[in-house]
Amino acid sequence: MNILFLILFQIFTLNAFATTLSSPEIKVYRNPTCNCCHKWINHLEENKFNVVDLLTTNMTQVKEAVKLPKQMTSCHTAIIEGYIIEGHVPANDIRRLLAEKPDIAGLSVPKMPVGTPGMEVGTRKDNFIVFQFDHDGHYGVFNQYQIDEHNEYQTSP
Question: What phi and psi, each to the nearest 5 degrees, are found at residue 69?
Answer without folding.
Answer: -60, 135
